[in-house]
Amino acid sequence: MKTVFFEVPKARQDIFLKFFGNENVSFYEEKLTENNVNLAKDADIISVFVDSHLNKNIIDKIPNLKFIATQSTGFSHIDCEYASTKGIKVSNVPAYGSHTVAEFAFGLILNLSRKISDANVYFKETLDYNYLPWMEGFNLEGKTLGIIGTGKIGKNVAKIAKGFEMNVLAYDLYPDLNFAKENNFTYKNFSEVIAQADILTLHTPYTKENYHMINKENIIMMKKGVYLINTARGELVDTEALIQGLDQKIIAGAGLDVLENGKDFTALNNRLIKMPNVMASPHMAFYTHEAVASIMKTTTENIKNFIAGRPENIVN
Ligand code: NAI
């Protein structure tokens, strides 16, 4: 079977090749789009990361396609329903980033609560070895962290928060009450969590049902001065509503690793990330040495197991 990989940097291609041996695989650094889909026209299997948007048009242009292995946990960039109608299976990497992303979420939180990044930039520019009034931060201890989505990442966020002696409230479609008891936190409904959180952090996948889960209607229900952290998916937050919430100082700051429309950068995104109280990063929460190694290992296993007739980590 012919496998074509997209979005694999050169350095990683050699590692993948070692995993695959002499099998029929080829690699491209670029994302898969309608303009370069001919590169995959003979593929039985394709593997992509999150910037290749595998819509109906692309899927239809790969006639032999049987399997899509995304090198990510999230799979909202793939039209899984349409793939299913054509008998195409989709796999993901379910667990590579559960500590990685949780740690990064706290990186954003600490940068907002203690202005570490802003102070670093200021200090390097000025060599002024004095703390200034704007550098005053706040303790996490005793603050309420609202976690939306307590899957693998959200659970690690809860554990880290407990280390900081924060109060944790959580909302999930499928609450894990045993885990909450063991880790001394409480599940509440969505509106209670967003109304009571000092810091709100999103850890759900993006699905059709939760598009703009954070929007104009519920931002006004939030505690004045709340901080919003999003390391999940940009589409969970209505960008315009977030800018308005920040302008109106309902939201004191935002830590964003993901933006609506991702790399198809909009003027609105540009405005958002340049706001002084926004800490933004280019979708890199997953990006550690350990997580990349785990992604490559699981993606290879997903493909080999599919070829051997034992598909694993199927999401559709
Ligand atoms: P998971 O599948 O283990 O957990 C997701 C949780 O969200 C589940 O408990 C589920 O019941 C809950 N959920 C789903 N829809 C919900 C809704 N509408 N309302 C409330 N709860 C809902 O997923 P995991 O591994 O924790 O990852 C979460 C998300 O983080 C991924 O789907 C992905 O989009 C994002 N992610 C971002 C990365 C980055 O680099 N920024 C890297 C890895 C994941």
How would you portray this structure in words?
It is a single chain. The protein has helices spanning 10-20, 56-60, 80-85, 98-114, 116-126, 152-163, 177-182, 190-196, 216-219, 239-247, 267-273, 289-307; strands at 3-5, 25-27, 45-48, 67-70, 89-91, 144-148, 167-171, 186-187, 199-202, 226-230, 251-256, 278-280. By secondary structure, the protein is of the alpha/beta class. The protein has 2 domains: 3-96 and 289-307, NAD(P)-binding Rossmann-like Domain (Rossmann fold), CATH 3.40.50.720; 98-280, NAD(P)-binding Rossmann-like Domain (Rossmann fold), CATH 3.40.50. Strand 6 (144-148), helix 6 (152-163) and strand 7 (167-171) form a beta-alpha-beta unit. It contains 12 helices and 12 strands. The strands form 2 sheets. A 7-stranded parallel beta sheet has the order 8-7-6-9-10-11-12, with helices on both faces. Helix 4 packs across helix 6 and helix 10 (239-247) packs parallel to helix 11. It is globular, with a radius of gyration of 21 Å. Bound molecules: 1,4-dihydronicotinamide adenine dinucleotide. The site of 1,4-dihydronicotinamide adenine dinucleotide has 31 residues, from helix 4 and helix 6. Belongs to the D-isomer specific 2-hydroxyacid dehydrogenase family. It comes from Candidatus Nomurabacteria bacterium RIFCSPHIGHO2_02_FULL_35_13. Keywords: NAD, Oxidoreductase. GO terms for molecular function: D-lactate dehydrogenase (NAD+) activity; NAD binding.
